[in-house]
Amino acid sequence: MTGRRKSAIEDHFDFAPELEQFLHDRGKKEQADVVHNVGRGVRFSYTRQSEALGLGHAVLCAAELVGDEPFAVLLGDVIMDGQIPATRQLVEIYEATGKGAIHVEEVPRERLHFYGIIDAIRAKDPRWGERLLQIKDLVEKPSAEKAPSNWGVTGRYVLPPEIFGHLEKTKPGAGGEIQLTDGLRALAQEIGLWAYVYEGKTHDAGDKMGFLKATVELALKDAKLGEVFRSYLKDLKA
Ligand code: G1P
Fold this sequence. Notes:
This protein is of the alpha+beta class. Helices cover 39% and strands 21% of the residues.
């Protein structure tokens, strides 16, 4: 899903013969190979959301591209870092149960109103232990008083195509937008929906502080840069 002024994303995964040649001519073969391989082996299709009518509307814009298949939604401003890739984890649950699954995490009370919040019970499925929850209901960005729990939806969803029918019927909700959370509510009631408390670390890079924290923490873990970056930070502190 892209939109106005986001063609940089499409360009990034496209061929870049001039840049490849430029790098080759300067003997930077390794970097030229990175550019050459960036979009290989994957076919990309893009659709644009021409009006910012909400996340549910954005997902609905992809209905034709997706067709009658399960699919994943990844919110680009949320970075999830863990041993098992976050989306892979949800795909495993979908494949084993035939039902959609979304990631959640415990959210502090003062941040509940930034999230979709679920009402859920432990699924008690031995394959996933305490981490798998059965969703009863969801509310988009409730006040702390109205929140049914402190489990917030973090931004990875693996869903069946039935969600599209629900989104078509979804009226504007919180913030006047067509909310994915409201479509998920109907889906949870119709065929069921799992929530999973992800083991890894979730960075909300959608605000400035979250973006800075994600940059620093991921840089510290980087195989090539981690060590020098750590000593740079130590020097700064001194
Ligand atoms: C969206 C979703 C919300 C979810 C959040 C996670 O909200 O609508 O349910 O909890 O992403 O980041 P947004 O942050 O786009 O306002």
